[in-house]
Amino acid sequence: MTDFSYTVSATDGAARLGQVSTAHGMIDTPAFMPVGTAGTVKAMMPESVAETGAQIVLGNTYHLMLRPGADRVERLGGLHKFMNWPGPILTDSGGFQVMSLSKLRKMTEEGVTFQSHIDGRKFELTPETSIDIQRKLDADITMQLDECPAHTDDKKVIDESMQLSLRWAERSKAAFDDRPGYGVFGIVQGGVFNDLREQSAKGLINMDFHGLAVGGLAVGEPQNVMFEVLDGLMPHMPADKPRYLMGVGTPADIVGAVSRGIDMFDCVMPTRSGRTGKGFTRRGEVNIRNARHADDPRPLDEHCKCPACKNYSRAYIHHLVKAQEILGPMLLTWHNVHYYQDLMWWLRKSIGEGSLDEFIKRFHTDKEDGDIEPLLKER
Amino acid sequence: MTDFSYTVSATDGAARLGQVSTAHGMIDTPAFMPVGTAGTVKAMMPESVAETGAQIVLGNTYHLMLRPGADRVERLGGLHKFMNWPGPILTDSGGFQVMSLSKLRKMTEEGVTFQSHIDGRKFELTPETSIDIQRKLDADITMQLDECPAHTDDKKVIDESMQLSLRWAERSKAAFDDRPGYGVFGIVQGGVFNDLREQSAKGLINMDFHGLAVGGLAVGEPQNVMFEVLDGLMPHMPADKPRYLMGVGTPADIVGAVSRGIDMFDCVMPTRSGRTGKGFTRRGEVNIRNARHADDPRPLDEHCKCPACKNYSRAYIHHLVKAQEILGPMLLTWHNVHYYQDLMWWLRKSIGEGSLDEFIKRFHTDKEDGDIEPLLKER
Q: Of A331, B121, B353, B369, whose CB neighbour count within 10 A is largest?
């Protein structure tokens, strides 16, 4: 079993081409991790997820601890076996969903108690229990428990929250049981305040995590604010560790963050959009519910090699979505995840060739003039 | 292009092993046709449907004429291309769903007018328009428009309805445009009355359809009543044409009907059950929602070779169904369709080997004593 490691094979400006090695396999970075909330990337067979080029998926500790329960997943052989995903898995700490989904929360220095949104049962999540749950799930990459304040909170609140997250980081790292191929990431907080972000990063660096994540972004702030925070923070991030921007984002968010040195991403956008009739294409987003697609024999994206684009017309997918047929979300989700992996493949290729600037320029070219077409079709 | 044809290669008692040749390929009979109501076998990719061994799927004229519309399907290249199913397709006439789903029906000698259950638009369905819609859909096997009385109606009503269906049969056959590889089937009606069934069959035989269906069964009557009707009717059915029992049924219904000489079946049972948490196994039906499956590491059916059984535990599928994850219906539907095709494969093999009686005996053996286990696992 190899150690958990991160190696950089090329850089292009601040962007890095690299590989993360885990107990369940390698991850080429920059990487996008499809979200498998409750032990399934919604509406996809795991074989199909792998076919898109995805090498790692994300599981949500909050959802899995409530149902089916971490002890049960452990008894059944861990999350890889349970969900038939033999590759690497990253789990979040559960903290973010406790704040956004659960009821009757009580936060203390020790941790947070809350009621399940499913059946009202009471649970406690502390840095130690979160790490223990993620060990039971058998996550290759474990995340520290952090607190996620609202991005509209004032600086004093953000500062205190960031300090609490740092203390929880220390306890999380101490609770993490080092095993070959398994790693734990700290999470930089501090809202939109550069000095707080710097302080958070420096505190975490001292704790020697296997990687650092950036939390508390893509929570409602404009894209330029997110990029400014990254611009201020990235010089303080260690060069020899993977950097993970949590919950991000749109294709343009990802392109901008990769150019600033981010290595890993996750977001529900491609999967959730697939269930609401939206398709990502290199010409922009397509709302397949729109009546203008009803007679369109063309594929969603004529340069895409996913099964939805190879074998079906826009007219057919439009019909499926209007008729609320399950195959609609199945095809759209597959396409969207494939599109995101196409994008990551192209970003990696461009960094390796030192042509990232050119790629970004073409990515932002007017998407109707045809110039964008060859952008992702070579893969 | 080969003609539409049916050949018998072996018989075992009344049961027949045969092949139907159509414009889009061969169908080994006895055959079970998964139902692709609105141009999709719900929750399955068509490649997966083919992987189960299914060679033909059924489309519902009523659903397709309302949405996306027969003209649109024709413009888009026909149903095969539209739904990415290159193999044979049978469409029903639309009559059955008009009776069961639409609103404000008005029946005359000419046909039936009705309002769409989706948007209230008015439609007319006559023997001629039904045939024309099915031609636009490009069905390999077209069904005549018939009337489907309630099985509780008295003999006079059933008789009059059967006579109407015979007149509609004549008009349907006249409207059908003969093309190589395409066929049209007549439908025997007559409820549970042997003399009416005989009269219906004889009337249809004179019209020289490419095959005969048995309609108006599996509509609420007990299984033994259905079998008695078949026992009375089958001696009057032509030996050189395929025989299709519409809307049937449970595995035991199919086994009993095959032994009586039926060649083709369709039913929503495997697909619909897959969306309500039910799995068919050679040990009987499993309700995967039951709490006793929550920790069960075994597959749904240990002898089944479908992806749901090869790669997932009962505990996982239980979790998916409880969490209302789309992958739950996806896996259960795949398994159920695979199970039905396993059953058909075994029935064909047994007829070919002259061992159908032995198979049926084993099929009905106490499903807990282990004797049933090897029944379907050889395929």
A: A331
DSSP secondary structure, B41-62, as one string: -TT--HHHHHHTT---EEE-HH
Whether A236 and A156 share a structural domain = yes
**CA-CA distance, B87 to B110, in Å (whole number)?**
33
**Beta carbons of A327 and B75 less than 8 Å apart:** no
* ipTM confidence score: 0.96
Contacts of A307 in chain B (CB under 8 A): 45, 47
Count of domains in chain A? 2
CB contact under 8 A, B40 and A325: yes
Residue of B nearest to A309 (CA): B84
Cβ within 8 Å, pair A330-B45: yes
B316 touches chain A (CB under 8 A): yes
Mean pLDDT, residues B16-37: 98
Query: Which chain A residue shows the shortest CA-CA distance from B294?
Result: A68
Query: Domain residues for A37?
Result: 5-267
Tokens of B343: 């059953």
Average pLDDT of the residues in A306-320:
98
Q: Is B195 a catalytic residue?
A: no
CATH code of the domain covering residue B237: 3.20.20.105
B interface mutation test: which of A71, A319, A320 has the most B CBs within 10 A?
A: A319
The encoded tokens of residue A14 equal: 């601040």
Q: What is the mean pLDDT of chain A?
A: 95
Picking from A47, A275, A297, the nearest residue to B76 by CB comes out as A297
Same domain, B235 and B306: no
Nearest CB partner across the interface for A295, out of B75, B83, B295: B75
* Residue A373 pLDDT exceeds 70: no
- Nearest by CB to B76, which of A63, A311, A313? A313
> Within 13 A of A142's CA, how many CA atoms are on the CB side?
30
Domain check: are A369 and A232 in the same one? no
Judgement on whether residues B20 and B160 belong to the same structural domain of the protein: yes
Q: Rg of chain A over CA atoms, in angstroms?
A: 20
- Please choose, from the candidates B12, B31, B11, the residue with its C-alpha nearest in 3D space to the C-alpha of residue B21: B31
Same domain, B126 and B228: yes
Q: Tell me, what amino acid is at B91?
A: T
**Within an 8 Å CB–CB cutoff, is residue A363 touching chain B?**
no
Secondary structure class of A241 (helix, strand, coil): coil
In this complex, the residue of A45, A83, A311 whose CB is nearest that of residue B316 is A83
What is the reported pLDDT for A303?
A: 87
pLDDT digits (tens, 9 = 90+) for A104-116: 789 999 999 999 9
Please say which residue of A229, A247, A267 terminates a domain.
Answer: A267
Rounded Cα–Cα distance for residues B85 and B83 (Å): 6
**Nearest C-alpha neighbor of A376 from the set A249, A288, A282, A313:** A282
Contact state of B326 with A323 under an 8 Å Cβ cutoff = no
What residues of A are labeled active site? 92, 266
Mean pLDDT of B232-251: 97
From CA A110, how far away is CA B152, in angstroms rounded?
69
Model confidence over B60-84: pLDDT tens digits? 999 999 999 999 999 999 999 999 9
Count CB atoms within 10 A of the CB of residue B268. Answer: 16
Place of tokens 């710097």: A198
> In angstroms, rounded to a whole number, what is the distance separating the alpha carbons of residues A289 and A291?
6
Q: What is the pTM of this model?
A: 0.96
Average pLDDT, chain B: 95
The type of residue at A371 is: D
Q: How far is B58 from chain A (nearest CA, A)?
A: 16
| Residues A145, A12 share a domain | yes
